[in-house]
Amino acid sequence: MASAIKISPSILSANFSKLGEEIVALEKAGADYIHIDVMDGHFVPNITIGPEVIKRLRPVTKLTFDVHLMISPVDNFIKTFADAGADIITFHPEATENVSETINLIKKLGKKVGISLKPKSQINLVEDHLNEIDLILIMSVEPGFGGQKFMPEVLDKMKKLRNTIDEKKLNIDIEIDGGINFNNCKEAKKFGANILVSGSTVFKEHDGNLEKNIQLLRSN
Predict the structure, then answer these.
(1) Catalytic residues, which ones?
(2) In this predicted model, what pLDDT tens digit does every residue of 166-183 receive, in sequence order?
(3) In this predicted model, what pLDDT tens digit does every residue of 70-109 receive, in sequence order?
(4) Alpha carbons 32 and 38: distance in angstroms, whole number
(5) Of 41, 46, 159, 201, which has the maximum CB count within 10 A?
């Protein structure tokens, strides 16, 4: 069964001129994880932050760094991000030639392993690896940019995965990322998510009241 709901604010929506302060504020406001989107301008059409930024941010918080690698070929960069301070490393199956080898690489570095599915990615890309991973990240927008509209069509895929995980009594978190707000978070939880990634809602609603926004996402 899904564990208690965790909130993983995406720093893609933070003020990049004061990222360290933003992360400290998120920890004080009750965030469970810090979600860090890494984009290379190749696998997805945007470029965000690299390992050096994560390394500089690592000392400011004890929160789990939930690092989503949208880069290809992903294996070339996993050790660098592990060394920089990632706690969970999530990759896309389309970004590697051998999913099991990528999983093993992450595990050897002592990190938790996540696999991410884009809205059109099929469930079978992750189903064969359920015994090897800690987390599935369901993208509810096309990866690349923040502030996009939630795609409800991914919910059925998430529900199927949650049912399979529960039937097999596996300890796998299901995380959802993309356009999550105070309304659709209810559906996301109902369909099996236990980790909610949110950027715009956390940082911008209620005049940026982080504590209130995190609490509402958790309790709605």
Answers:
(1) 37, 177
(2) 999 999 999 999 999 999
(3) 999 999 999 999 999 999 999 999 999 999 999 999 999 9
(4) 19
(5) 201
Give the integer Cα–Cα distance in Å for 140 and 160: 15
Percent above pLDDT 70 for the chain: 97
Whole-prediction pTM value?
0.95
Alpha carbon 39 to its chain's center? 13
**Alpha-carbon span 136 to 165, nearest angstrom:** 10
Place of tokens 């938790």: 112
Q: Where are the domains of the chain?
A: 6-219
Structure tokens at 192: 């099996």
Q: For every residue of 178-213, which 3-state class applies, written as one string? A: CCCCCCHHHHHHHCCCCEEEECHHHHHHHHHCHHHH
Kindly report, residue by residue over 13-24, the tens digit of the pLDDT: 999 999 999 999
What is 6-219's CATH topology? TIM Barrel (3.20.20)
Position of tokens 């109902």? 190
